Amino acid sequence: MDHTIKKTDRPPYGLLAVLMIGAFIAFLNNTLLNIALPSIMTDLDVDATTVQWLTTGFMLVNGILIPTTAFLIQKYSVRRLFLVAMGLFATGTIIAGIAHAFPVLLTARMVQASGSAIMMPLLMNVMLVSFPIEKRGAAMGVFGLILMFAPAIGPTLSGWIIEHYDWRMLFHFVTPIAIVVLLIGFFLLKDKKDKVDIRLDLFSLLLSSVGFGGLLYGFSSAGSKGWDSPQVYGTLIVGISSLVWFILRQLKQERPMLNFRIFKYPMFSLSSSITMVVNMALFSGMLLIPIYVQTIRGISPVDAGLMMLPGALLMAVMSPITGRLFDKFGGRILAIVGLIITTVTTYYFSQLTMDTTYTNLVILNSVRSLGMSMVLMPVSTNGLNQLPARYYPHGTAMNNTLNQVSGAIGTALLVTVMSTRTETHATELMKNAAGQSLPEMQQQIAMRAMLEGINDAFFVATFIAGVALILAFFIKRAKPAEDTISGKQAESKNLANLVEN
């Protein structure tokens, strides 16, 4: 029997549940690893620059593969893509769990990334074609609840595992769950797809890989190597040049690998811009708060994870509520209120001191998380709602790619601000402390300079959030655009295949 995905009164909840569990496991694994990096450095005898490739490499593979998911979703069935994606992720997890050399661990992480890169766009596309526009907010809210729960429990769970077991236990913990989900998908997913006559343009794939890969690597390296490093500006120049060539090539093709014509829809373009800007501000908290808490205040990794837990849980709980509010009121009011909260709390984070209490940090981070929860999913869903159904794979792939790029840009920008301002403040403080060269005094100056550098980075993040707030006032409730292609049977057939399969 041919089980298909159609817009009916009863969406395929079983299929969605399997996909969501798979996405949750992939997302959880990534949040688990961050706290384990120091332990991996010690055990495998690598420095901070090298171990960071476990994160950078994962992000690079995502950035290279995600643009291809628009083609893959149109070409292959949900079942086939899910099994390949989950199989790659499980294989990478098993290899990582037995890795005793850094190159093996890095290879395993890249295999994991190749699976997770397919998972998220696939799930979002299935949700778009399974729910009518008036119910998408609630559906995306449940989706957000499940995915936000991963970063909520990830740091705390990882801290506990690292304190009691070897870091490889993080992968051993995920492996049986990934295998079970793979088996469930194998037996339960039965959808089929008619043969679709589209082929992957290999030269476009090469340009996309070099373009997005170059941007991600360049921005990711800028924080540690500096903007004047040939390795940084060289890869950025190559990446930007390749990306421009890639975009021009896609605009000339009748069936592009990644369709940039989706940016002619104003609400999608606006939502993409807001999401990119918000992601840059979001990374300020993910990056700077742990540095402040652990390096300057000396709070343990477990307590640092517990400090972030209420905010992450609040985002998870708010996600379905925000989804229902989106269905009722639209994205504009939610985005404006959420970005006001985000901007104000980000500003307060720029006023940190050596004596800021743990309780104040928990409350401030929680309120900031509340603001973020009202922005990301509603804005993204509103933009996707304006696209015709044939553009859903391209819209989800574009959103996920831009999230990767904006995260790298935000991280590079804020690390640069923090580093340069820390040096400036250290120079000024040393002048004021002339003649007091005791080691204790120098350590105090270094900590004070870093604190001021973090505050300056948060201040820049406040302006970034302010830009998103201004853009949010231009949001309008999106309605599906008319599919203007006519007289092209091949396109009509692809649309039917997409909606039905």
Automatic annotation (TrEMBL):
**Localization in the cell:** Cell membrane
Which keywords does the record carry? Answer: Cell membrane, Membrane, Transmembrane, Transmembrane helix, Transport
Q: Name one Pfam family in it.
A: MFS_1
Q: Which GO terms describe its cellular component?
A: plasma membrane
Q: Does the keyword Transmembrane apply?
A: yes
The Major facilitator superfamily (MFS) profile domain, residue ranges: 15-480
Matching entries from InterPro entries are given as:
EmrB-like, MFS, MFS_dom, MFS_trans_sf
The membrane topology noted for this protein in its Swiss-Prot or TrEMBL record is: Multi-pass membrane protein
List the transmembrane segments: 12-33, 53-74, 81-105, 111-131, 138-157, 169-188, 200-219, 231-248, 268-293, 299-317, 329-349, 457-475
Enumerate the PROSITE patterns for this protein: MFS
Which CDD domains has this protein been placed in?
MFS_LmrB_MDR_like (cd17503)
> GO MF terms on file?
transmembrane transporter activity
Show the PANTHER family listed in the entry.
MAJOR FACILITATOR SUPERFAMILY MULTIDRUG TRANSPORTER MFSC (PTHR42718:SF9)
Give the family from UniProt: Belongs to the major facilitator superfamily. EmrB family.
For this entry, the protein name equals DHA2 family efflux MFS transporter permease subunit
Q: What organism does this protein naturally occur in?
A: Peribacillus cavernae
